[in-house]
């Protein structure tokens, strides 16, 4: 699982949450370029992406991942789940802050649908 989040505390919390649930995690990557490089080296089973990273909006990375059949969960403090659903109906989204149980439920749901 790949995690891209430019807020380091939030990113480490996300990684800890999914790792403690038994998933192998790469990240957190704080910018799109490092997340893209990690994605190109190893295609993850799933990605949790902050919408706004240190070097830009994550949509190009998300679109490439979805084109390669990688489920994406958007994690944003800026966009509502409804706004994300309009652009990416197949993707899930979580608002910040998000309880750990909701993160795990979304991960499990995305992997089951995949």
Automatic annotation (TrEMBL):
Keywords per UniProt: Phosphoprotein
Q: Which InterPro entries match?
A: CheY-like_superfamily, Sig_transdc_resp-reg_receiver
Q: Where are the transmembrane segments?
A: none
Q: Does the keyword Phosphoprotein apply?
A: yes
Entry's Gene Ontology BP terms:
phosphorelay signal transduction system
Residues modified as 4-aspartylphosphate = 50
What SMART domains is this protein classified in?
REC
Domain Response regulatory per the UniProt entry, residue ranges: 1-111
Q: What is this protein called?
A: Response regulator
Q: Which organism is it from?
A: Qipengyuania marisflavi
């Amino acid at each position: 699982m790949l995690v891209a989040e430019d807020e380091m505390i939030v990113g480490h919390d996300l990684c800890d949450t999914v790792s403690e649930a038994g998933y192998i995690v790469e990240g957190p990557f704080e910018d799109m370029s490092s997340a893209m490089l990690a994605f190109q080296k190893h295609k993850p089973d799933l990605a949790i992406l902050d919408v706004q990273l240190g070097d830009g909006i994550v949509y190009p990375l998300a679109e490439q991942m979805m084109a390669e059949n990688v489920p994406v969960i958007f994690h944003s403090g800026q966009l509502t789940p409804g706004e994300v659903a309009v652009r990416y109906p197949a993707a899930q989204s979580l608002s910040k802050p998000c309880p750990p149980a909701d993160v795990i439920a979304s991960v499990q749901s995305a992997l089951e649908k995949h």
